[in-house]
Design a protein that fits this description.
By secondary structure, this protein is an alpha+beta fold. A 7-stranded antiparallel beta sheet has the order 1-7-6-5-4-3-2. β2 and β3 form a beta hairpin.
Length: 165
């Protein structure tokens, strides 16, 4: 039985799993692809280990403003699985509400699985709200159809990164 609050996206990347894993776990590589289409991501803090904290600034290309994000890692099992809590943040790394909606969940549990597929790597990403109110869950469910497009921008940048190195 599927969870109506779970967003799942699977994607095949044309690179070996160790290479794809490095793109998700090395801060200098994350800065090159992580974030919505058209943003420049700057890593402010990166302690990528269970209990560690990642904080980044995302500047919109068209002068449309700045977003801050924070990840708190729960689990890292190289090169197979990463689990983190994902939130909007302020410049100091504190959790804040979404700049787009007052009823957006403050924390999302992100699980990313990396599976070898011949010479390529299949990545399965899932998002589930954590401790969300009924109103936050409604807003999240309504937005699920837009998540594919949001992650597609990141994945296009990741494809370019993987093709370069």
């Amino acid at each position: 039985m599927s969870n109506p609050d779970e967003f799942v996206m699977s994607r095949l990347f044309k690179a070996p799993r160790d290479r794809v894993w490095a793109a998700w776990t090395r801060p200098e590589q994350l800065a090159r692809w992580f974030g919505p289409r058209g943003v420049t991501t700057t890593v402010v803090a990166a302690d990528i280990r269970p209990g560690g904290f990642f904080h980044c600034r995302m500047d919109m290309a068209d002068g449309g403003g700045t977003l801050w994000a924070r990840l708190v890692y729960r689990e890292i099992a190289a090169p197979e699985r990463i689990v983190w809590e994902h939130s909007f943040a302020d410049r100091d790394g504190n959790i804040v509400g979404s700049p787009f909606s007052e009823h957006w969940p403050k924390r999302l549990l992100t699980t990313v699985l990396f599976e070898e597929a011949g010479a390529d790597t299949r990545v399965r990403l899932s998002w589930v709200p954590i401790d969300a109110s009924a109103e936050e869950l409604r807003e999240y469910r309504d937005a699920i159809p837009s998540f594919d497009d949001g992650w597609a921008g990141s994945y296009e940048a990741l494809d370019r990164l993987l093709a370069q190195d």
